[in-house]
């Protein structure tokens, strides 16, 4: 990423957010970051290469839409990926098939976090820029262009609904020949959203899912995170807890670890960009300060098996068994694959009455116990933080008291006459526009004074005193005696 471009477009550059999500994110669902570094001109992110391609290319292989059984699997994994980003406190803002990557064994990895923003304390992001891809933008993002109001993570679930529509019907629902027309359709989606004539080929459950996503934010699925989708009829039979270990419905054809055949490669994707080193005459002072702390190196604890997946792909070419990639994935413990509140529910299924069941455990009761435990831990951490704050406040008061004893502060009403420091050097006395309480240190140095304005005086004078502290101290004592 070109530093000069980032500095010129600082209002839309989310390079720090992108790095943070990649460093802290759940590597089951997002691209794994190994290194972040920089030179004079560029920022670099070294991530795993998802040799299986992307969802857009996969849709092209199937004639722009895929069978509903395949869509169910990919949408379920995308749900988990989006939810993992939201749990970090970020909004992706650019969910689309191009950014849904596939590993060598066909599982989903969410990529391209260059539009990510952190949620603020009110649970929303505040941006007046339409960042993202037009066909997938939610109406609340477009409304924010004029209203200056914030929007929440619901915008990512809207984009998921557009992706679901595209997977099942082969096109986006609000496509138009021009951007203004597309934006108009999205803003007034109630009037323009409809299923195409072939909608009968898609199940009622599939249409229900799409309608639950392409709607107003307050009605949209996803407000409760991934859990909103666990009980939806469209995902009946999905084993959410072990989803990452399931066999994908499509196995990408991969010849080696650097195969690019599963991508529609754009020749000009590496365009020539302006370098900072070539702009030294106009380069702003401190240009590189914005990128301090950007570097990162993954440790052994943060690395997952994804690198081994690529290595295993190369071994397949040498005659190794076809199950090497899957075996590498299965070396991870199942408990590490689960969201924290649900890690005890290894297999989930949809019951005949439409209720979600867990093996030998009632989901609602277990969730309640887990949330109660987390609440107790949070309260304990809160009490610890309050005690730490009280200790720090005591230390701060102690330091302030010690500082005051070190300073030789004299009578607060003692003032020195003010003189104008005139450029002409005439040295004329100026009206006493401001006075300076004198604070004297025991050592020789430059004395700085806090200016106090007198009511009704419009003139301004400046006083600069530089003298020996001991001499001034003796003088101030004499003045204090005279005043008393």
UniProtKB/TrEMBL annotation:
Keyword annotations of the record: ATP-binding, Coiled coil, Cytoplasm, Kinase, Metal-binding, Nucleotide-binding, Phosphoprotein, Serine/threonine-protein kinase, Transferase
Name of this protein: non-specific serine/threonine protein kinase
Upper lineage: Eukaryota, Metazoa, Chordata, Craniata, Vertebrata
Chain coiled-coil ranges: 368-402
Keyword ATP-binding: yes
EC number assigned by the record: 2.7.11.1
Cofactors, names only: Mg(2+)
Domain AGC-kinase C-terminal stretches: 236-306
One GO term of the biological process aspect: actomyosin structure organization
Class in the EC hierarchy, top level: transferase
Gene3D superfamilies the UniProt entry points to: 1.20.5.340, Phosphorylase Kinase, domain 1, Transferase(Phosphotransferase) domain 1
């Amino acid at each position: 990423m070109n530093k000069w471009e980032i500095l010129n477009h600082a209002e839309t550059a989310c390079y720090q957010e992108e790095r943070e999500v990649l460093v802290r994110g759940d590597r089951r669902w997002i691209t794994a970051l190994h290194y972040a570094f920089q030179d004079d001109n560029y920022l670099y992110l070294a991530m795993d290469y998802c040799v299986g391609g992307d969802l857009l290319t996969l849709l092209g292989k199937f004639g722009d839409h895929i069978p509903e059984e395949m869509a169910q699997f990919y949408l379920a994994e995308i749900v988990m990926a989006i939810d993992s980003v939201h749990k970090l406190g970020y909004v992706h803002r650019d969910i689309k098939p191009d950014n849904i990557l596939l590993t060598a064994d066909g599982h989903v990895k969410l990529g391209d976090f260059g539009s990510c923003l952190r949620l603020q304390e009110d649970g929303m992001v505040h941006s007046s820029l339409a960042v993202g891809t037009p066909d997938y933008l939610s109406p609340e993002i477009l409304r924010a262009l004029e209203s200056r109001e914030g929007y929440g993570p619901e915008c990512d679930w809207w984009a998921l609904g557009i992706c679901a529509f595209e997977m099942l019907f082969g096109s986006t629902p609000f496509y138009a020949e021009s951007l203004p027309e597309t934006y108009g359709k999205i803003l007034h989606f109630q009037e323009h959203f409809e299923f195409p004539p072939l909608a009968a080929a898609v199940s009622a459950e599939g249409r229900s899912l799409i309608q639950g996503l392409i709607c107003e934010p307050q009605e949209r699925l996803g407000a409760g995170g991934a859990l909103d989708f666990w009980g939806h009829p469209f995902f009946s039979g999905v084993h959410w807890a072990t989803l990452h270990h399931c066999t994908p419905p499509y196995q990408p054809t991969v010849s080696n670890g650097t195969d690019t055949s599963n991508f529609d490669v754009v020749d000009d994707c590496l365009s020539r960009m302006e370098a900072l080193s070539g702009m030294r005459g106009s380069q702003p002072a401190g240009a590189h300060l914005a990128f301090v702390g950007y570097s990162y190196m993954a440790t052994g604890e943060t690395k997952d098996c994804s690198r081994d997946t690529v290595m295993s792909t190369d071994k397949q070419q040498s005659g190794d068994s076809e199950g090497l990639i899957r075996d590498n994935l299965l070396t991870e413990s199942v408990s590490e694959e689960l969201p924290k509140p649900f890690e005890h529910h290894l297999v989930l299924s949809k019951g005949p009455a439409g209720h979600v069941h867990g093996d030998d455990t009632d989901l609602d009761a277990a969730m309640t116990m887990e949330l109660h435990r987390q609440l107790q831990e949070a309260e304990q951490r809160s009490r610890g933080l309050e005690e730490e704050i009280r200790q720090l406040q005591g230390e701060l008061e102690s330091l302030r008291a010690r500082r005051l004893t070190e300073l030789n502060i004299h009578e607060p009403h003692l003032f020195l006459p003010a003189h104008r420091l005139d450029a002409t050097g005439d040295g004329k006395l100026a009206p006493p526009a401001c006075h300076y309480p004198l604070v004297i240190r025991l050592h020789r140095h430059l004395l700085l004074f806090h200016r106090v304005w007198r009511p009704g005086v419009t003139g301004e004078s400046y006083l600069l005193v530089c003298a020996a502290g001991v001499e001034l101290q003796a003088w101030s004592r004499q003045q204090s005696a005279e005043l008393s």
